[in-house]
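Hi all, long-time lurker, first post. I run a small reading group and we've been trying to get comfortable going from sequence to structure in the token notation. Rather than ask abstract questions, I figured I'd post a concrete chain and ask someone more experienced to write out its structure so we can walk through it together at our next meeting. Sequence below, copied exactly:
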Amino acid sequence: MELGLSLASASPPAGGLAQPPPLAPPGKEQQVAGVGILLQISMLVLSFVLGHVLRRHRFYYLPEASASLLIGLVVGGLANISNTETNTRTWFNFHEEFFFLFLLPPIIFQSGFSLSPKPFFANFGAIVTFAILGTFIASVVTGVLVYLGGLTFLMYKLPLVECLMFGALISATDPVTVLSIFQELGSDVNLYALVFGESVLNDAMAISLYRTMSSVRSHAAAGENFFMMILQFLETFVGSMSSGVGVGFISALLFKYAGLDVDNLQNLECCLFVLFPYFSYMLAEGLGLSGIVSILFTGMVMKHYTYSNLSDNSQRFVSAFFHLLSSLAETFVFIYMGFDIAMEEHSWSHVGFIFFSIIFIVVARAVNVFSCAYLVNMSRPEHRRIPLKHQKALWFSGLRGAMAFALALQSVHELPEGHGKTIFTTTTAIVVLTVLLIGGSTGTMLEALDVVGDESPSIENYEDNNGYMPPTYEEGTSSGGGLRMKLKQFHKSTTSFTALDKNYLTPFFTSQTDDDDDDDFSGQPQSRRVRFYDQ
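-- Answer (accepted) --
Happy to help. Here is the structure in token form:
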């Protein structure tokens, strides 16, 4: 040490800035990094093993997501009271950039890639209604209620724009627990498609809404009217969707005409397929759009068109690869989130804000689900309407997860210190409450609603109509007013898209035959239920 100090004083660096002495001996930082990575891998292994044991014994009171979050909370709590906090925190600090650039893209892509096209398009109108209109309703209702709560001194007062930002970020749902129980016990295929489809598009919608409100706030929105705000949101969402769809179509044409589906080029084929999703994500981010929206639609297009242009071995590889990558990322996110919750500094001085926010998001979710279900049922015949028990299951499945947490952490840097900390602490409390408590009661609740173990009475009808089940309308149902007719026309447009896809898009972008279309229904809801009942 003395030698190091004498050398530093004898030869000052250029510019007169003294270099600080090394904080640790050579190799010490690598050792600390190795220990941190070892701890992360150990928690991943523990989480996967614990999740397998819980599934095997059908113990639904502690789902996998809850177990992963709990492991992170426990380890983070132990690190918080130990002397290794500084070193450990270096490797476990929840960076939203790392989350949005590396962890979230494979999860979102797999969501779009694993969508079963036939039940998805059969319920396309309902899914879009819940995900787009419903998320907007939930965001506005939550934001307005929080703002009114501040005006009436029920809770900590925030400006209206910041309340709407909070409403947008807290509207991002993560029903991973509900979906896992659906997969284990089996459920109505239409209910699964609604829950899964809404959750996939909901994340993209919530991010777009949050970024729009954040941009409005940063540009001192007093000079911007409501129309400009809506236009900015549409520009972000539609632009991102177009970018993702365009990249997906380009990949389909490349794999169709490049002749890569031969044995000695399978490695190149798989590499290119894996790179396209990240290309879509980074392209949208580089254009100032939403990479999440872009990669979601890229996944949907690549599964529907590009996937059939791959060789059989490459199809098996990319399906297994993205499923593996998504499982690792999702489990790591919940561990990462639990650890950071235990290590972060929270602002617990506004307990009233947390309490009333929980009540407000429950109310907003109910307004979202039941109002959108009413609109959907207006346009459907009797046998195709969403039953009340399915509406209650949709309401209950609105758990909050990693997306809300990441956006709340981002708000800490964008909002004034007290406001950002309050929103972050509130979101943290809501995530822990919904994932651990509500997630643990999901199995019991779904069984009480009698929505698990259902056999869909209309699954067979998918194949009778080329895999799609557009609603049929009786003569007497057309007298429900102008709104009812417009809703029916919207649902009928799904049939038009189905015909366009079958007659023009699929032949142009793929080389598959009509027989290949039957394989598309080997999606999550049906295949996993069949595996369960075959046991």
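A couple of things your group might point at:
The first helix runs from residue 2 to 10.
Residues 1-22, 455-480, 514-535 have pLDDT under 50 and may be disordered.
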